[in-house]
Amino acid sequence: MKRLIFIAITLFSIIGCSKFPVDEDGLLITDRNECYVSNFELLGRDYQIARSKAPVIDTIAQTIDVEVLYGTDLKNLWPQFSLCPDAKLEPKITGFVDFSDLQPKEWTVISGDRKVRKTYTVTVTVQERTYE
Fold first, then answer.
1. I need a labelling partner for 77 at 20 to 30 A (CA). Which of 36, 49, 94, 122 fits?
2. Residues paired with 68 in a beta bridge
3. What pLDDT score was predicted for residue 102?
């Protein structure tokens, strides 16, 4: 009897969960249409913060300006985005990104309902060298 109850609960759980829509990444599609970056971080090869000051995030212009410490290895920076609830990022960040050309890079934030897309431009500059 216990086994039958367990099987029934398992089946109802699987059937009940399958009616929620998911995207190609297996993420739940919601009714949220917000689409913005709430925070941004750059980590160096040692997984320590590489920026010299807080990034400037402009959600209207969809830009992120960040200055890294002088001497930072620009070929090995790991961008980390904090997004509004249920949003996702494209392309996915799977490792270190090469910013050594100092050219802006673009990522697109996609809303929870997958209907709103906003492309953010990330510009990295290097802190000026100070002489003491």
1. 36
2. 51, 126
3. 96
As given in the structure block, the two tokens for residue 69 are 């410490």
Domains of the chain by start residue, with CATH: 21-126 (2.60.40.2340)
Task: Give the phi and the psi of residue 103 in degrees, each rounded to 5.
Answer: -90, 145
Token representation of residue 102: 């100092």
Q: Is the pTM of this model over 0.90?
A: no
**Distance between alpha carbon 77 and the CA centroid of its chain, in Å?**
14
Asked if the peptide bond before residue 91 counts as cis, ω within 30 degrees of 0, the response is yes
The residues of the chain scoring below 70 in pLDDT are 4, 6, 8, 10-18, 132
Per-residue pLDDT tens for 48-62? Answer: 999 999 999 999 999
- β strands within the chain, DSSP E: 37-43, 56-58, 63-68, 78-83, 88-90, 105-110, 117-126
